[in-house]
Amino acid sequence: MLYPPNSVDKLGFTEIKELIKAHCLSEMGQQMVDKIGVMSNYDQIHKFLSQANEFKNILVNDEALPIQHFFDIKSLANKARIEGVFLTEEEFYQVQASLNTVFAVIAYFNEREGLYPNLEALFEHLPIEKAILKKIDAVIDQKGKIRVNASRELMEITTGITKAEQEARKKIDMIFKNATSNGWAADGSLTIRDGRLVIPLLAENKRKLKGFVHDESASGQTVYLEPEEVFVLNNRIRDLEFERRREIVKILTALTNELRPYVPLLLSYHGLLTKLDFVRAKALFAIDIEAEMPQVVNEARVKLYNARHPLLFLNFKAEKKTVVPLNMQIDEGTRVIVVSGPNAGGKSVCMKTVGLLQMMVQAGLLIPADEASVVGVFKQFFVDIGDDQSIESDLSTYSAHLSKMKTFVEQANGKTLILIDEFGTGTDPQFGGPIAEAVLEALNQKKVKGMVTTHYSNLKIFASNTEGIENASMLFNNIEMRPLYQLEIGKPGSSYAFEIAQKIGLPQNVLNLAKNKISEGQKKVDTLLVDLEREKRSIFETKQKLDKQQRKVNELLAENEKLKSYLEENQRSLIKEAKDQAKNIILNANKLVENTISEIKSSNADKEKTRQLRENLNVELKRNTVKVEAPKPTAPADEELKPGDWVKLTDSETTGQVIEIIKENVVIAIGDLRTVAKKKRVVKVSKSSVPKEIRRNFSSQTNDLASFSPEIDVRGQRTEDALHNIEKLFDRALMMGFNNLKIIHGKGDGILRKMIRQYLKKYDQVDRMEDEHADRGGDGITYVYLK
User: Fold this and answer.
1) Those residues with Cβ within 8 angstroms of residue 764's Cβ, 6 or more apart along the chain or in another chain
2) pLDDT tens per residue, range 284-343
3) Residues at the annotated binding site?
4) Pair type for strands 211-216 and 222-227
């Protein structure tokens, strides 16, 4: 239930419907848009939203749906239903084109079975009767003209007409040539008069040829004569044309009779085309306003994230401006939000945004808000916006408001959404305020939900002391004296009446006089609200700084954890390598001892031979021992470091390679990580002392860096694939320290470009995005600059 009925106009819903109608391809689709209304059935709402969302996904991410023709075949089917009536060539062409579109659409979805279940439900159980199309194709060609071979009789008649026309033309050409050679013909050539081919003759020579004069020139000097011989042939042609027309009517009548049993199916096909046009228009409008499908729940509540007024969004988009997004929540805990703040601060727009988006969702339309938004279902919409005074009904502005309040209080319930603008105005504030407070209390007792705007202090106080009602304010910069258009829940706002009056230039003596006329208590309340506003803004700015610092701390902690993990892995690798080396040394030593003993035995314990074998054994063991215990050579302390040198941190066993030297700092690459250390914390080591595994990994990374290109071409790719490839390029660019990327996406209709930019905005590492120069690709190429 909508009360009053003109609420759709007050909230801008009528304008939304007109914008959707502009996207329709057919009059049937436009008629369906006209019938859009607010629904209260959860299943219906969810179904219509899902259909629009699926069609939007097709338009953005999939191949184009083969929709080419939308004709009103319902009226044609109803015409064919009548016995004795036949469809014309043009009408059969419209039926033919519409059937081709229907069958192409069904084939499109059959190829993608299961991807778009809600759209597939539009033609579920709808039979594909191609026999109709075959019957029409046998008679009507692809240009909408009747085929020459539609029947044997038509072909014979057509052939007869062609032969008679050729004979008549040949005959008249010969007569005209003869008349010209005799000097009888006037200047000019053969022409048409009354649908007959005639010869232009000089008036004085008209009796020199037998025939019929059809016309003469304005001066009377030229007559247009049809020769007698040709006259008989032309009459024969005309008779044949009448026969042809009768045969065509006969063929079309027979075809209409064959079509008549399929009229119910044609009406079903008409319904499918109408619904497709309707859903397509809703999806195109959703793309225009960058709309998403919110989460829909079967409860009377609403929670919006980054919501924007669609009409305001389109206006600002044309002016290349942005709309400040709205975040708000209405549920059982916060049923009614009382919004206060300065005039022109955005209170009414905020309330209208909530009402319009709720109305759009319950009409099956996607909304310009984050997809994480939650929108419920309300059974009633009660709206009081603007001036509804009526001379005919003898209602003043305030009387009209009170009349609405009476209806609200009597009929509202827990599933009612109320939207009241400038609550209580229109009469003496001394009485209007208490009456508004009483109405609000009565509505709160009925558990209604909604939003009201006001300047009355008593309503702000009532909201702060009443369960279920919450104060909110539109933020205002009282230093620059300009509204910020941001809704802040929890605190009432000042009207900034004196500050705005001062900015406008009202004389100071008038302002002082006005300040002296208000009560001391009201002064304190307004001053308190201004101070609260200032403190809120200060707290908000401080919170933003703390959040930024916390993000940096989290990044550093994550980097530290990665470094720690790498060091532990490196340590395990070194220990394993040392153990393997020691094991090999022991095995080699055992083999050497065994071989020495074997040789001593074979020489029968000869003293000289035994001594020599023992010396060889000692030399070999010492050599292996040196290999294990030899210290890693280090470079002299005073040797200058340069990029490419290998270094070790003095307070750990971590080894890395110098990437860059900045004054007293050294940028070191340790595996995938980059770290900065003071020069005095590192010691240069020789390359040979660095484990092969570390050198190999670094070499691989260096090769990757050398081969890496910060450019990608995603033209022709589906949006999902393009974003996936861009994400991989983005990750590698961050890891390798690149500060910009070049993305080639083409121009087209701009959808891929918009989706890519929206996707990259969510990364904090992105500083800005710009188009390429117009001479080198313009908005078909995006440059992404990283922080």
Assistant:
1) 551, 787
2) 999 999 999 999 999 999 999 999 999 999 998 888 888 889 999 999 889 999 998 776
3) 341-348
4) antiparallel
Pairing status of strand 326-330 against strand 295-296: unpaired
Q: Is 524 exposed, middle or buried (0-12, 13-18, 19+ CB in 10 A)?
A: exposed
What pLDDT, in 10s, does the model give residues 476-494?
666 666 667 788 887 776 6
Rounded alpha-carbon distances, angstroms, from residue 322 to 285, 316, 441, 750: 18, 6, 37, 18
Annotated binding site for ATP: 341-348
Distance between CA atoms of residues 385 and 352, nearest Å: 9
CATH number of 708-786: 3.30.1370.110
Classified as helix, coil or strand, 497 is helix
63-279: which CATH number, 2.40.30.10, 2.60.120.10, 3.40.50.1240, 1.10.1420.10?
Answer: 1.10.1420.10
State the Cα–Cα distance between residues 565 and 233, nearest whole angstrom: 103
Q: Helix H segments across 508-660?
A: 508-517, 520-602, 607-629
Token pair 């595994």 in the structure block, residue: 693
Distance (Å, whole) CA 91 – CA 325: 50
Quickly tell me which residue has 């997004």 as its tokens. Answer: 325
The CA angle 566-571-576, to the nearest 5 degrees, is 125
Would you list the DSSP string of 43-83? HHHHHHHHHHHHHHHHHHHSPPP-------HHHHHHHHTST
Spatial contact of 168 and 195, defined as CB atoms under 8 Å apart: no
Cβ atoms of 68 and 101 within 8 Å: the answer is yes
